[in-house]
Design goal:
globular; two-stranded antiparallel ribbon; 11 strands
Length: about 190
Amino acid sequence: MITRTAHPNAPGTRTFPIDAVRLAAGASFVAALLMLVSIAGADPARAEPTFKQRLVGTWIFVSSVNTRKDGTIYDRWGASPKGVLMFDANGRYSQIIIRSEPSLFGGKTIFSFGTYVVDDASATLITEIEGGSLSKLEGTKQRRKIKLLTADELNYVNLDGMGGSVIDAVWKRAPAHQPHSATLYAPLR
């Protein structure tokens, strides 16, 4: 066994086995590490992001299915609609959806903007419409029950659809914007 000793001429010299020294140092290190991990785990900044934090960004419209009060189902926007829904971190939103095919009934475009809040306990998105294509909705609130919210997909049910219909809508997160190449733009002469 290897031992650690003080200078042989030092008064009260004691000999300690190196294994005991290493064991004590290792135990102290493990205790300190466990304390740091427990403190880091209790850090509120590391808490699960709220629904609102996860919603912030730009979403691209995928589809919606409308169910009328009588149970009939219809697709208001057709086969290849276009749309965007934006949420900012300050509680403001804007939304636009465009039908690509001609429509005999109903508008081809709907848009709205206003404020939003999210009730995390009930997973409900509440928008208050300040303006939009349907003036009768200005000043009203719409509740959307969030069914699924991942990094790339948002699926909600609009419980306050027009005419009492229920709207099940799907959105995908917009990819990060890639600036156009500077070579695409010719200088003005």
